[in-house]
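Example record

The entry below shows one chain as it appears in the dataset: sequence first, then structure tokens.
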Amino acid sequence: MGSAISDTFIKDLQDGGLLSELTKKIQSDDTLMLALRGHYINVYYRGGSILHISEQANGYAAKFDTNYFEGEVVALPPATIQAAGDCSNWVAVLPKLKETMNAHFATRRKSEREFQQLAAWENNRSVISNDTEYFITDIEFADRDQGAKLDMVGLKWPSGLRKDETKCKPVLVEMKYGTGSYDGAAGIAKHIADLEGILANPVKREGLNKTIADQFEQLLQLKLVGFNKHANYSRAIVSGRPEVIFLIANHNPRSRKLLNIVEEIVEPKDFDLRFFAASFAGYGMHDACMLDLGKFKALLKQLAG
């Protein structure tokens, strides 16, 4: 499960720290995203991890997934990061690693993961991020105890309540890209069942709330969330009834497959189920774009004719 990183780790990522050059690179490169994982971080590119950095007793260890190599093998810097120059070497090789991943994705597409990173960027760091009502604090979230995985977690903070830090609700987002993703072992019904098992547990809910709040604060410290804090801002407090959102990307409106699946869904007891209908085009998330189960069924019936 993703979680906040240590005070030492966050300081090393901030200005003047051992890893600060990497943070500056992420801040200036909209194709990169930082995910906090407790004792390590992932830097994502096109939905895949381009860099994994773990906390060690004497510095950090960096690695790149060599399964991405498709022919030309890029010479990687030494794994150990104990000086700023060691971090600089990894930042310098990122363009080559991007080319490697581009070649890999050309034959092994991961459209769902790529678009989930885009959705996170649009709500966190794009020019409209301060106008949206949702912030994404993590992608590729996993609960090992329950065996459940989600594409994104974050918080909902209505635009009219931005001066009240207690009005943040936990949000879990699952992206479904194309009709082939609607059913099966990772389908909509299975995800709802998994989440009912997790969110019915108050201890798990509270742990999730804390994780989201901690991640949001650290992303703010690293200037990786475009959010205009009010003058007396202290800290976001995440609480209340969770909201689970299905972000359906590139649905074929002539297909009845999604309608048939949604017709069988029963309103969950422990969370608000929502389906994201984009505001014209784009992934900027607003409360007005979130359809409840009844409204979503009605929309699908209208589209199906």
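Notes for this example: The helical segments are 7-13, 20-28, 84-107, 111-124, 188-199, 202-221, 257-263, 293-304. The mean pLDDT is 91.
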